[in-house]
């Protein structure tokens, strides 16, 4: 089976983990601090705070902004449930917005229409490796959280993804652009936000009590992450090479290809007018794992009217995510395209 996604790891990651194992310090320590500094420096921000997952980082980011019960947070509907979980964990109300058809990113027009007196923040994910312009959202007067789980290493013009919002969050889950197994981080230019985030994570041996969280990243994860971050450029180049190959092979077939400009191709998502549902089992029977890029839109989980999310519904029907990751072999790329184009040629 050609997997839909998988992590890339090698000798240097193993070497660093071995060093941590023999050091005797297996929890949060100097390696975690180094990872925080390296990532915040790469984004061009004052600092970062590591966590045990991207969801935890987002939860802490919301609390650090003062988001609380009865507040509303706008999120795109075409995204994974981690955003829903984090907003609900903060006690706030998630408000789904529709997305843009070309980019799969949150629609500013739809988000703007959702603002009420209770709205305090908007989460702006950069979907599938394609960055979303953040400046329009900054003009809304809301706190802007950039979700860079799928765009680490991408850019908005000359600005790295994550460098414009009030706070940005990252995920290092096993199949993300870089992996620590599980893990995440928030970053900001604000001393106040960073201080609040650290206070919420440093839960033990405190003079005062308030609700804090055991969300820390371990030095094992951090050392792994430092090694992966050093290879991010290599990983992205390989993704771009695979995407370019797919583009060439799929040219002229009845599918819409993903945008190229500004895309680092965390996912390679095509659109089939007749829908993706029939393609997925066809590919699976022939040893190729393809998926819907989002398992289920948030508005469906929340029981909201589908008519209010026309673009999300359209793309949910049409979108298909194909295998793309740094360790994908040329023979696997070729087989994926041979099988898919053979099917598509029958549909012409």
Topology:
Blueprint: H1 11-23, H2 30-43, E1 47-51, H3 54-64, E2 72-76, H4 82-89, E3 93-97, H5 108-113, E4 119-125, H6 135-138, E5 143-147, E6 155-156, E7 159-160, E8 167-171, E9 184-188, H7 191-201, H8 219-230, H9 232-250, E10 255-256, E11 268-272, H10 279-285, H11 298-301, H12 310-318, E12 319-322, H13 330-347
Parallel strand pairs: 2-3, 2-4, 4-5, 5-8
Antiparallel strand pairs: 1-9, 6-7, 8-9, 10-11, 11-12
Helix pairs in contact: 1-8, 2-8, 3-4, 3-7
Provide a descriptive summary of the structure in words.
This protein is α/β, with parallel strands linked by helices and 348 residues long. The chain folds into two domains: 11-230, Type I PLP-dependent aspartate aminotransferase-like (Major domain) (Aspartate Aminotransferase, domain 2); 232-347, Aspartate Aminotransferase, domain 1 (Alpha-Beta Complex). It is built from 13 helices and twelve strands. The protein has helices at 11-23, 30-43, 54-64, 82-89, 108-113, 135-138, 191-201, 219-230, 232-250, 279-285, 298-301, 310-318, 330-347, and strands spanning 47-51, 72-76, 93-97, 119-125, 143-147, 155-156, 159-160, 167-171, 184-188, 255-256, 268-272, 319-322. A seven-stranded mixed β-sheet has the order 1-9-8-5-4-2-3, with helices on both faces. Strand 4 (119-125), helix 6 and strand 5 (143-147) form a beta-alpha-beta unit. Helix 2 packs parallel to helix 8. The longest helix is centred in the last third of the chain and has 19 residues, at 232-250. The chain is globular and about 70 Å long. The mean pLDDT is 95.
